[in-house]
Automatic annotation (TrEMBL):
It comes from Amycolatopsis silviterrae. Keywords: Hydrolase, Signal. The lineage of its organism: Bacteria, Bacillati, Actinomycetota, Actinomycetes, Pseudonocardiales. InterPro entries: AB_hydrolase_fold (IPR029058), PET_hydrolase/cutinase-like (IPR041127). Residues 108-221 form the PET hydrolase/cutinase-like domain. This is Alpha/beta hydrolase family protein. GO terms for molecular function: hydrolase activity.
Length: 324
């Protein structure tokens, strides 16, 4: 009888587990935005003020432990859109009658996947940079913008700073010693600049970058023989490339070639059939200004969903293995 009762109990437990409703992504992941203003960040080394705005994906159950932080940065696209004429605006802040193009929301799918795995993910807006800044200033300003958001989160983790009141739920739950960065397109060079050996001293005190993902990044140096601004030998990084990228091709593989024999944890992967724009939902067909930039004649071109799924698998697995 004891054996029978035990078997029945086990069967009941199995059935309860199988039949119990599973938590959906929406139930597991929280989303919140912050915006301190379109010209809130005055960096003395940058010629224009920048916005401090972001969307945050996070585990709803933060538990009693600190979580690794990931900062995502988009690349160069329009900053403002005329909703009637559907033409790009060249100013920042956006003129009256034009809306902001939220490129920073183009990676929500990735933020959700990472948050499901226990990461706090901050995708930041860089529209002021896109509207006004070119050349090296456009890249070091991207790096400085990442550092500024990390400074905000460092202070928030202590219950201090301008985010403390509205995002108090994160106090004590952010591990600034386990930080990852992801940058797409020009944002890819931006995060490599921020993580480079040369610019490590510019990280906010208490912050440690442990993993970097340049996603379909640009690669070029203002001085051909000087790559020191983006040379990363001390931090693991993984470049994600696209075989059908009609915007920048696979030039980003040079980041790995630059550190052969100097960084044992530098790698690249190419998603066959992927293009440049589908990584960002705001840059994809179906949105104002969205474009399919797949290389003409590309064999085996991926759908947007397939491409984002492939990118998410590569990026989530990399961060999960390096930030744990």
């Amino acid at each position: 009888m004891t054996f029978l009762r035990t078997a029945v109990a086990v069967l009941a437990l199995v059935l309860a587990t199988v039949l119990a409703p599973q938590a959906t992504a929406a139930q597991r992941v929280g989303v919140v935005e912050y915006n301190l203003g379109d010209q809130a960040f005055h960096d003395p080394t940058v010629s224009v003020p920048m916005e401090l705005a972001a969307v945050v994906h996070y585990p709803r159950d933060l538990g009693g432990r600190p979580h690794p932080l990931i900062v995502q940065e988009h690349g160069s696209w329009w900053s403002c859109l005329d909703p009637v004429a559907k033409t790009p605006g060249g100013d920042w802040p956006c003129p009256p009658g034009q809306r902001t193009l939220p490129s920073y929301r183009g990676y929500d799918y990735l933020g959700e996947k990472l948050a499901e795995r226990g990461f706090i993910v901050v995708s930041i807006s860089a529209n002021a940079i896109n509207a006004h800044l070119l050349g090296d200033e456009g890249y070091f300003s991207r790096a400085h913008l990442v550092n500024k958001h990390l400074e905000l989160w460092r202070d928030l983790a202590r219950g201090e700073g301008p985010l403390a009141a509205s995002l108090s739920r994160f106090r004590g739950h952010v591990d600034l010693s386990r930080v990852g960065t992801m940058g797409h397109s020009r944002g890819g060079k931006g995060v490599m600049w921020q993580a480079s050996d040369k610019h490590t001293p510019e990280w906010p005190a208490g912050v440690r970058i442990r993993a970097v993902v340049p996603l379909a990044p640009v690669y070029f140096n203002s001085t051909e023989d000087d790559n020191s601004d983006v040379l990363v030998t001390r931090v693991p990084f993984k470049v994600v490339l696209s075989s059908c990228d009609g915007a920048v091709g696979i030039v980003g593989q040079q980041y790995v070639k630059d550190v052969v024999g100097r960084n044992p944890d530098a790698s690249a992967v190419t998603l066959v059939g992927a293009n440049h724009n589908f990584y960002n939902t705001e840059w994809s067909p179906g949105k104002i200004g969205g474009e399919d930039d797949t290389t003409p004649g590309c064999v085996g071109a991926l759908t947007p969903a397939q491409q984002r799924g492939g990118a998410a698998r590569e990026i989530v697995s990399f961060f999960a293995s390096r930030l744990r």
